[in-house]
Amino acid sequence: MTADDSFGRLDDDDYPAYTMGRAAEMLNTTQGFLRAIGEARLITPPRSPGGHRRYSRYQLRIAARARELVDGGTPIEAAILEDQLEEAQRINAEHQQGLKPGSTPPAA
């Protein structure tokens, strides 16, 4: 892998670049909260070779949304279901538009 390949990953929303400690700090939450949403399978961070969880920017956005809902009084289980429903609706809308899930629509 070249240095250019490594730097290219910085633009990848799915690249697991953040440690649990850094992710918790960025979200102004606890590592326990991140573990809880992981155990509930809202996000499934991959593990480093040393066994540490690593989070992508995409996963951090999901965690931030869950945190907003929980801070607003929504139980974590309901926050997870709400997020899963929102994701399913997004995928369904993309499917109806003839897009591959996760791709961007063509420019008009």
Describe the protein in words.
- This protein has 108 residues and is mainly alpha-helical.
- It has one domain: Orthogonal Bundle (Multidrug-efflux Transporter Regulator, Chain: A, Domain 2), CATH 1.10.1660.10.
- Helices cover 55% and strands 4% of the residues.
- It contains 5 helices and 2 strands.
- It has helices spanning 3-8, 20-27, 31-39, 57-71, 76-96, and strands at residues 18-19, 54-55.
- It has a two-stranded antiparallel sheet with strand order 1-2.
- Helix 4 (57-71) packs across helix 5.
- The model has no long low-confidence stretch (mean pLDDT 84).
Give a brief outline of the structure.
The chain is mainly alpha-helical and 108 residues long. The chain has helices spanning 3-8, 20-27, 31-39, 57-71, 76-96; strands spanning 18-19, 54-55. It has a single domain (10-91), classed as Multidrug-efflux Transporter Regulator, Chain: A, Domain 2, CATH 1.10.1660.
* Discrete helix count: 5
Strand content: under 5%
Which CATH top level class fits? Mainly Alpha
Give unreliable regions as ranges.
Answer: none
| Biggest sheet: strand arrangement | 1-2
Q: End-to-end distance, in Å?
A: 36 Å
Estimate the helix proportion, in percent.
40-55%
The geometry reads as globular
Structural class designation: mainly alpha
Largest sheet geometry: 2 strands, antiparallel
CATH-scheme architecture: Orthogonal Bundle
Radius of gyration: 16 Å
The total domain count is 1
Give the total of beta strands: 2
Write the CATH fold name: Multidrug-efflux Transporter Regulator, Chain: A, Domain 2
Q: What value does the average pLDDT take?
A: 84
Pfam families: MerR_1
Protein name: MerR family transcriptional regulator
Domain HTH merR-type: 17-83
Organism: Streptomyces microflavus
